Amino acid sequence: MHGVGQLSLISGWLPVVILVLGVLALGWLLLRRDRRQLRTVLAVLVLAVVLTLLLRYVVEDVWRPFPDPLPISLYTSIGVGMLGLLLAGPRLRNARTWRGRGLTVLAAVVVVLAATAQVNHFFRAYPTVSAALGNGRTGEVALDSVPGPQADAVTGTPLSAVWKAPADIPSGGVVTQASIPATASGFRARPARIYLPPAYLVSPRPVLPVLVLLAGQPGAPDDWLTFGGIKPLMDGYAATHAGLAPVVVMADATGTELANPLCLDSRLGQVQTYLAVDVPAWVKATLQVRQDAAGWAIAGSSYGGTCSLQMALNHPDVYPTFVDISGQSTPTLGDAQRTLDATFGGDAARFAAVNPLDLMRRNQYPQLAGTFTVGANDGVYRPEQKKVLAAAQAAGMTVTYTEVPGGHDWGAWRAGLESSLGLLGTRLGITR
Fold first, then answer.
1. Structural domain boundaries in the chain
2. pLDDT in tens, 372-391
3. pLDDT of 67 strictly over 80
């Protein structure tokens, strides 16, 4: 099963086979013998097109849950999946044998599977069969089983110079869950997920730095576990650094899957206060981690990348190190006026007081360091990252820019974070 689990759902022969099977299954569902059945097929085709166009209209023009439009290819894949299900109805009704009914159900399932695979190919959320089955989420423990603070913890900068891993150090870290109280902000956050590296699980323990890691929008704290592969990524880093790695706190920065509070303190919620006050206060009081700002960084992808830069600029005393992965040049709900109205009642001055580009135009930030990463094929966010990079350089920050393979997808976001681990290790005092 291990070999099957490692099969790629993004490249290689398996995605091609799934697509071919989907085309064959759709062809079988479309096949009809007489004129009356052909009329039924044509009616179903028209219905599928109408439903797909209606879905796109509702999402893009009425509901507008995302700041940027979704690509036509995604709606096409969803439409094909709906077509497979709609075709199965009349086919089941006309089937005379259980064999025919079974083949119809199987064909509809294969069409939906092929359509889903195409959506996954765009987002690169599940790179392997194992990831799609959820087999990568190992090493999860209850919060009350996490070892408490120790009096003889190892300190020093860099930690690699003073730390020696004991013989019984685990080969991998663990993941736990915690509801971080929104004492100061009142923000209704979902439970955070926390990665604790191998060095945290032994005695004596080093006092480790913290990386606050944010998902995109739509998104959830679990996304970096489910899609981002954060545990194997950090376990790999720890394996080459004597078990040392940051404690990774995957905090909630949206409140719900589809909410978009723009990582601001506004009418949409007190997200900045939650991330700048509530999260650090709870982590420092509960876990044995660095208490000083030099041991803290914030990172994220897409919405989370924009949010990371916002937090660094608005709270440099909390997060002097950031990783902006495929972020926007400015927080937005799709257009400027809608954003102003929803956040500050149309007050442009209040928005400019916290907006990244405005802050970097007015102020210098020599104490900040970070990296901007983006997919080389990301035609929307690559220009925005370059724009923010130039502003950051003009504002005196120490920044780097990296393009990684991929577009606006989890493949690029995983690679973006991985490419930033060197900077994080140095800035957070793990390595020289």
1. 2-130, 140-427
2. 999 999 999 999 999 999 99
3. no
Instruction: Check residue 125 and give its pLDDT.
Output: 81
Distances, alpha carbon 211 to alpha carbons 31, 180, 300, 373, in Å: 55, 15, 10, 17
Q: Across residues 82-90, what is the average pLDDT?
A: 94
Compute CA distances 89 → 21, 77, 83, 101, 327, whole Å.
20, 19, 10, 10, 43
Residue among 103, 101, 106, 108 at smallest CA distance from 85: 108
At which residue do the structure tokens 């999402």 appear? 59
User: Which is nearest to 215 in space by CA: 320, 122, 302?
Assistant: 302
Report angle CA 198, 200, 206 to the nearest 5 degrees. 115
What is the reported pLDDT for 421? 98
Residues facing 69 on adjacent strands: none
Which whole-number Å values give the CA distances from 419 to 16, 320, 371, in the listed order? 30, 19, 9
Contact between residue 279 and residue 253 where contact means Cβ atoms under 8 Å apart = no
Residue 66, pLDDT above cutoff 80: no
Q: How far is CA 398 from the centre of its chain?
A: 25
Q: Give phi and psi for 386, each to the nearest 5.
A: -65, -35
Furthest-apart CA atoms within the chain: distance in Å:
83
CATH superfamily of 140-427: Alpha/Beta hydrolase fold, catalytic domain (3.40.50.1820)
Token pair, residue 99, equals: 């064999």
User: Which pLDDT score, from 0 to 100, does residue 31 have?
Assistant: 84
Q: CA 158 → CA 55, 145, 244, 330, 417, distances in Å?
A: 53, 28, 11, 35, 21
Sheet with 192-196: strands ordered across: 174-178, 192-196, 247-250, 210-214, 296-301, 321-325, 369-375, 398-404
Q: Report the alpha-carbon distance of residue 207 to residue 203 in Å, rounded.
A: 11
20-63 confidence digits (pLDDT tens): 999 999 999 998 666 778 888 999 999 999 999 999 999 888 88
Is residue 280 within 8 A of residue 287, CB to CB? The reply is no
